[in-house]
From TrEMBL:
This is Type IV secretion system protein VirB9, putative. InterPro entries: Conjugal_tfr_TrbG/VirB9/CagX. It comes from Campylobacter upsaliensis. It comes from the Bacteria. Residues 1-19 form the signal peptide. The keyword Signal applies. Keywords: Signal.
Length: 132
């Protein structure tokens, strides 16, 4: 019984690692969160929308890197980082009839939460590195 309680407590502490930002009372699409280095923040984004991350007033973004650069448009302006998912276009080469040669089809992959996972690293002038 004690082990079960301990395991339950540990599982709950891991669940608290994700910080859900507070929704604005004026617009439900706007959320706010105060940075805490020990928390993980979810940034919601969708095709056709831009998400903005605001760093502290004295921070300036000097570098951004993502694991899937073709799927994101990143724009930094001072202490603001604008994040926009974008559709990824790829070519699929196939051959239904080898005598006719290869056919090339263009496939457009739209962003979706189930498959559009990557990391984003932001470095600022205060020698801070954020993993988003």
């Amino acid at each position: 019984m004690k082990k079960l309680i301990l395991v339950s407590f540990l599982m709950c502490s891991f669940l608290n690692a994700l910080e859900l930002p507070q929704t604005s009372k004026y617009d439900k699409k706007i959320t706010y969160a105060v940075f805490n280095a020990h928390q993980v923040f979810r940034i919601a984004s969708a095709n056709g929308y831009v998400s903005v991350v605001e760093f502290s007033k004295d921070e300036r973004i000097i570098n951004t890197a993502t694991g899937f650069s073709q799927g994101w448009e990143l724009t930094d302006k001072g202490n603001l980082l604008f994040i926009k998912p974008k559709a990824y276009t790829t070519k699929y080469i196939h051959s239904e009839n080898p005598e006719e040669g290869n056919a090339i089809s263009e496939i457009i992959v739209d962003p979706n939460p189930a498959e559009w996972k990557t990391n984003l690293i932001v470095t600022t002038n205060l020698n801070c590195m954020y993993l988003i």
